């Protein structure tokens, strides 16, 4: 399974914020560290804010930080929510037009694999992703 860039960037933002702790960060700062388009990250941050996962503060001394403790943020549930409208293959979509659909067993097999994928990810939290904070800080030059 391939995650969308939006989900990938969302996870990177959350890891960055978890490493920084309570300290505020900016979209530009994160964009620079990951070499990702600032415009893309603005959309990601807006969505994470709407989901209640991060706090945003406006103004000269504004920024963003986590709204939840990293141990309370389940990675599998987050990815499931972010990827909810991204079908694995055409037959998963209501707009699919696969002629094999009535007889094919691929959809059932992929559904089982997708379920296992999310169940595995649901055993992890954001805290698990940042257990090696020292190395992460070093990698991000913090």
From TrEMBL:
Alphabetically list the UniProt keywords.
Answer: DNA-binding
The organism sits in which domain of life?
Bacteria
In alphabetical order, the GO MF annotations are: DNA binding; DNA-binding transcription factor activity
Question: What is one term from the GO cellular component aspect held by the record?
Answer: cytosol
**NCBIfam families with a match to the protein in the record:** rrf2_super
By its UniProt entry, which PANTHER family does this protein fall under? Answer: HTH-TYPE TRANSCRIPTIONAL REPRESSOR NSRR, WINGED HELIX-TURN-HELIX TRANSCRIPTIONAL REGULATOR, RRF2 FAMILY
Q: What is this protein called?
A: Rrf2 family transcriptional regulator
């Amino acid at each position: 399974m391939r995650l969308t860039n939006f989900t990938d960037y969302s996870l990177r933002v959350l890891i960055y914020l978890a490493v920084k702790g309570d300290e505020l960060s900016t979209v530009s700062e994160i964009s620079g560290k990951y070499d990702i388009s600032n415009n893309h990250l603005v959309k990601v941050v807006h969505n994470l804010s709407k989901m209640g996962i991060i706090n945003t503060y406006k103004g000269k001394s504004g920024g963003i930080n986590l709204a939840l403790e990293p141990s309370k943020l389940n990675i599998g549930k987050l990815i499931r929510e972010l990827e909810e409208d991204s079908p694995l293959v055409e037959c998963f979509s209501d707009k699919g037009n696969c002629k094999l659909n009535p007889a094919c067993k691929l959809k059932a097999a992929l559904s089982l694999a997708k379920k296992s994928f999310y169940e595995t990810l649901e055993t992890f939290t954001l805290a698990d992703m940042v257990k090696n904070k020292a190395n992460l800080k070093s990698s991000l030059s913090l």
